[in-house]
Amino acid sequence: GRAERERLRIAIQKSGRLAEPARTLLSACGLDWRVQGDRLFCHGESLPVDLLLVRDDDIPGLIADQVCDLGFVGRNVLAEQDGERRASGQPSAFREWRALGFGACRLALAVPDGWQWTGPGQLAGRRIATSYPVLLREWLAREGVDADVVRLSGSVEIAPRLGQADAVCDLVSSGATLAANQLKPVATVLESEAVLAGPVEPLEGVRGELAGLLLRRLDGALQVRN
Ligand code: PRP
Ligand code: ZN
Ligand code: MG
User: Is any ligand 1 atom within 6 A of the Cβ of residue 154?
Assistant: First the structure.
């Protein structure tokens, strides 16, 4: 059974912004892998620590289901999915173990360039497109604003031009995507970066010892960087 697995399993993004820095950081921790045929599972050679290459959205669920022990994922993904669990009455099943200092971005409210921004109250009664409905609803509640949340899984920035929404709430890194869609950021919902995610409770047994070793090396590698 999965509880007796004696190798640690870490999920990272298969491709995308966090993929390469995640592998570089794990290499700095002394890990290396033999890539298997499908390239989705990498067998750890120097330590019994294997890598699983997946979509970043799937990482919290893999930890919740104990398919993986740890994962490198954006705080934004972790926070949204933790909020989803809370909203449906499920207990927390993962948490942030370490901030990793790369992949910095923010989840931001953005409105058309032409708007004269006066504050959150301006969003009252408006439609806001986002892939982060839980985090957006929490922010709206904190600001005391009643708006309609339109859930989209991608291409959120184009929604105002398509007439699907009046504003958006999406990740901003360089700001180029917003600018290309004639939108401007006006408020921050969440400051994000890549994090090491793990279960709520510490791992036990062999995997607990491996995780401890990895954390010590990770903390050393992060200190050298700062
Ligand atoms: C993110 C985000 C924005 C874009 C912002 O998408 O959803 O679309 O990056 O970056 P910028 O401010 O540097 O232009 P990503 O490319 O990570 O793909 P995804 O939306 O499919 O996850
Ligand atoms: Zn081997
Ligand atoms: Mg995007």
Answer: yes
Q: What is the CATH number of the domain that holds 210?
A: 3.40.190.10
pLDDT reported for residue 137: 98
**Ligand 1 atom 19, closest CA:** 154
Angle between helix 205-225 and helix 19-28 axes, rounded to 10 deg:
100
The verdict on 115 and 99 lying in the same domain is: no
Q: Which residue's CA is the nearest one to ligand 1's atom 20?
A: 154
171, 183, 190: residue to mutate for ligand 1 pocket, most atoms within 8 A of CB: 171
Domain of 42? 2-103+193-225
Sorting pLDDT into bands at 50, 70 and 90, what band is 105?
Answer: very high
Shared domain check, 97 and 141: no
pLDDT, one tens digit per residue, over 29-56 is 999 988 766 678 899 999 999 999 999 9
Rg (CA), the chain: 19
